[in-house]
Amino acid sequence: MKDYKQININNYYYDLPDSKIAKYPKENRDESMLLIKNEDSISQSLFKNITDFLPTNSLMFFNNTKVINARLFFQKETGSIIEIFCLEPIPINYYSNALISTKQCTWKCLIGNNKKWKSGYLKKNISINSQNFELRIEKKQQLGNAFEIEFTWDNENIIFYQILENSGNVPIPPYLNRESENIDNQRYQTIYGDKQGSVAAPTAGLHFTETVFQNLEAKNIKTDNITLHVGAGTFQPVKTVTVAEHKMHTEYFIVSKSNIENLLAYLGKTIVVGTTTVRTLESLYHIAMQIYFNKNKKDNYFEISQWEAYEEKKENIPTETLLKNMLNWMNENNFEHINCSTSIMIVPGYKFQFTNQLITNFHQPQSTLLLLLAAFIGESWKEVYEYALTNNFRFLSYGDACLFL
User: Fold this and answer.
1) How far is residue 310's CA from residue 345's CA, in Å, rounded to a whole number?
2) Consecutive H or E run containing 386
3) What is the side-by-side strand order in the sheet with 42-46?
4) Which residues pair with 136 in a beta bridge?
5) CA gap 371, 164 in Å, rounded
6) Region of residue 171 (left: phi > 0; alpha: psi -120 to 50; beta: else)
7) Which of 254, 249, 276 is nearest to 195 (CA)?
8) How many Cβ atoms sit within 10 Å of the Cβ of residue 66?
9) What is the largest CA-CA distance in the chain?
């Protein structure tokens, strides 16, 4: 893959009228439309019928992350409103501890109206469970287009997650061009998400209902959960002409030993729900490669760089061998989980290792998510999107779904 960095993003543009973007969710999650694409045809149905098209005796992977109320607003004495958008804790592998921190924690944040906040600290009074306290923020340093923000509060009985839930707003996508509403508190979450940490929803999962899960079980489709905390970078379009110049965002995930055991048992029979789950499973392959060539590694934290997936491999190791070796290494070191920050960028020409079928929504033009889809189905993405636009499918986060077989 010598030319992967020279991919021209202009080849991944399509005209998306604002009228095609779903500004609100459907009344019932599984009443969304479903586009089905196999090698020979494109058809449509409703999402509640998805199990009619899925292979039996397969494994479906979900991302069980949960969106946090990541937007906080502070008012200066001058009256100016400053928005703090929490992106990720510092360090990035500190998610769980950051959310249960008492009295202090540090996050990488975007700042709205930053020019109005030159220096000093901002504060706001908060009341949770009849406990009144003051939350302060201080700007420490600039991190690209974001900032390191230190949060402190004078009540050790309150954890940071409670502050976000009580005083924050759900961070709906910017392309909805509206403020969050009560409906978003419920519908911009999957029904199965229980691991707090995302600032954007894994939207392919928004269509699933208890009825759909019952149908999956009836068809002997096993389900499993990984956790990747989705970052705001998922909405960032590629603004450079070639992908070589684009800096891919980093996201943090956790994979358990049982996830790997299930993956091994269902090799070649994996249905993946959403691009974030794809990023996790495909990154897992490259973690397995790292372990294979560094069996003496004694910690369970890994980093996958943007282009690592395209570098020349020392050997062509079968995926079954890699997974078995990974499990042996975890057992030898008494690890139940693997933690990773991944910047993997999946573009056309990428060889998928663990993604056999894909469920996803419709993505923005010239986005890394559209590049991932094009990597999975090739140039037929244009035919798929033209069909969707012509047949009144709803696009983006609150829009309809696709199944690629």
Assistant:
1) 10
2) helix 381-390
3) 42-46, 33-37, 401-404, 357-361, 270-273, 59-63, 222-229, 251-256, 337-342, 301-304
4) 123, 152
5) 33
6) beta
7) 254
8) 18
9) 63
Q: For tokens 């002997």, name the residue.
A: 220
Token pair recorded at residue 138: 């201080």
Burial class of residue 336, CB neighbours in 10 A (0-12, 13-18, 19+): exposed
The answer to whether residues 74 and 124 touch, using CB atoms and an 8 Å cutoff, is yes
Going from the C-alpha of 289 to that of each of 31, 144, 252, 341, 373, the distances in angstroms are 41, 31, 19, 16, 24
146 forms beta bridges with: 143
Strand partners, 126: 133
Q: What SS3 class is residue 375?
A: helix
Q: Which two three-digit tokens encode residue 53?
A: 């098209």
pLDDT per 10-residue tile (average), the chain, 405 residues:
82 97 97 96 98 97 96 92 93 79 93 90 93 94 92 93 94 92 96 94 97 98 96 82 91 95 97 97 96 92 94 82 97 96 95 97 96 97 98 98 98
Q: In a 3-state reduction of DSSP, which class is residue 298? A: coil
**Sequence-separated (6 or more) residues with CB below 8 Å from residue 1:** 310, 349, 350
Per-position b or e across 109-130, b if 16+ CB within 10 A of its CB: bbbeeeeebeeeebbeebebee
